[in-house]
Amino acid sequence: MANPLYDRLFGRHAGNPAPFLHTDCGETISYAEFVRRAARLANALTALGLGPGDRLAAQIDKSPEALMLYAACAQAGVVFLPLNTAYTGAEITYFIENSGAALFVCDGRTRDTLAPIADAAGARVETLNGDGTGSLTDLAASQPDTFDTAPRSDGDLAALLYTSGTTGRSKGAMLSQRNLLSNAETLAAHWSFTSDDVLLHALPIFHTHGLFVATNVMLLAGGSMIFLPKFDLDRMIAEMPRATTMMGVPTFYTRLLSDARFDRDLTAGMRLFISGSAPLLAETHRQFEDRTGHRIMERYGMTETNMNTSNPYDGDRRAGTVGLALPGVELKICDPETGATLPQGEIGVIEVRGENVFQGYWQMPEKTREELRADGFFITGDLGMIDADGYVTIVGRGKDLVISGGFNVYPKEVEDALDQQPGVLESAVIGVPHPDFGEGVVAVLVPQPGAAIDTGALAAALGETLAKYKQPKRFVVVDELPRNTMGKVQKNALRETYGDSFT
Ligand code: AMP
Predict the structure, then answer these.
(1) Alpha-carbon separation of residue 55 from 8, 97, 170 (angstroms)
(2) Which spans in 77-200 are helix H?
(3) How does strand 272-275 pair with strand 297-302?
(4) Which is deepest, 4, 144, 418, 499, by most CB within 10 Å?
């Protein structure tokens, strides 16, 4: 019996002696060994009473064993639910309760705190530590290294990934086997991945970027990954000459550029740098090309949809855009009020449809109906536009749109204008309550190292380029912008901090 996700990603590598993971401690794990060790874990899950369709929630550090747990779930038909390592006990309670997880796997460090929470929610608890040890590993050690793969089909759930939930409760995006596999197949082909590729992997694996985009693509291609626990500048620079590709969030790129060792020679063996999960500044794109000769390839996706667009591999990679709709993905720009498709060139909400789009939110039929249309289009909540050549530009999240005096202000446009001013490294534009205008624009600025920002001169300069209603009514200079682990600027936090600017 078939299990498409397991068979295509893992099963076919059962006898493959090629390297899959180069670990942090200098070991290499072959594909064949990875598959055997994952099978032991699959047996352990079965011994614990888990079966097809059950949910396994895991809040564990990144490690080869954590990735094996993903493979084990696929093989046993268990729905994998990886959780951000930053989540607190209160948040974990919600995820376990909401998902009805049968098993919660945590780090030994947090067991004492989290076990009562899991108990109360009816989940068993096992541990898996960042060094690969733990009660689950102990249990797996005595299990056979082959496992009778659970039959699954395309529509069966493979993973439940909770959205980052910057507003309201986070929702469990139900991802089917086909959702994951179709997207990985598209990306591996589109980005020309082969078994010769060595991916420098420093992303977390509780998120779609590090788990599905990076890992699934490499599994399909049969290449290997230098698997680092997290982004560490020195390690990245030391490992770069061994790699051929890297996937990162924009902060990876700005941090690499901040180091003089990162140059053309160091990246001579690289064939591709990919960026996503947050906007890459056009300026970073240009600096990167000047320094290394490589043009970063930016793509756009999200938890619910996997990847939707990418700049071309062969062809014009345009700074500040997220490229073209991927093969098999339909993308349109719609009126936020009516849902009607807007003419090319206008700004509206991005909607996408394709095999990549999720099955709905776990046990939230109403939320699902609000965001996933009956015809299969998902309302992303991102605002964007498509140019005459089909390139998509993201202008911000719908909820970040500022309406000042009845006029729409797209934060990205103001941020772009600010970022071009002398002394400005980066900026974030938010709208906060204003007694006259409803909302007033506030600009939060980070200066370039050693530079001072003259906000008076800045305001005057913007007066030349931006309509009055778009101009910030307040400027704030900070050392750095609040970001989450995926490099996304936390505009909610900024709105909270500067919410009373005009009241
Ligand atoms: P997540 O579900 O955590 O992956 O977040 C998805 C959101 O990240 C999208 O809805 C976008 O708002 C944002 N995002 C992802 N990739 C990009 C990109 N290349 N440029 C701008 N925003 C992006």
Answers:
(1) 22, 11, 17
(2) 89-99, 111-120, 135-141, 177-190
(3) parallel
(4) 418
Structure tokens at 220: 């399909």
CB 260 within 8 A of CB 233: no
Give the separation between CA 342 and CA 371, rounded to whole angstroms: 18
What token pair was written down for 61? 């550090």
pTM: 0.91
Answer yes or no: is the C-beta of 352 below 6 A from any ligand 1 atom.
no
Residue owning the nearest CA to atom 7 of ligand 1: 302
Q: Which of 207, 302, 391, 412 to mutate to test the pocket of ligand 1 (most atoms within 8 A of CB)?
A: 302
Assess whether the C-beta atom of 300 lies below 6 angstroms from ligand 1: yes
For residue 317, count other CB atoms closer than 10 A to its CB. Answer: 19
CA of 426 to the centre of ligand 1 (A): 18
C-alpha closest to that of 221 among 185, 250, 247: 185
The residue that leads in pLDDT, 6 or 434, is: 6
- What is the arithmetic mean of pLDDT over 237-243? 98
Query: By C-alpha distance, which of 445, 454, 452, 450 is closest to 414?
Result: 445
Q: Which atom of ligand 1 is nearest to the CA of 304?
A: 2
How long, in residues, is the chain? 503
Closest to 119 in 3D by CA, of 141, 132, 102: 102
Query: Which protein residue has the closest C-alpha to ligand 1 atom 5?
Result: 302
Report the C-alpha gap between 21 and 27 in whole angstroms: 8
Residue 77 to residue 177: CA distance in whole angstroms:
10
Q: What is the pLDDT of residue 168?
A: 59
Could you tell me the distance, in angstroms and rounded to a whole number, from the CA of residue 63 to the centre of ligand 1? 25
Please state whether 322 falls in left (phi above 0), alpha (psi between -120 and 50) or beta: alpha
423 neighbors 448 (Cβ within 8 angstroms): yes
Instruction: Report helix, strand or coil for 251.
Output: helix
Mean pLDDT along residues 209-234: 97
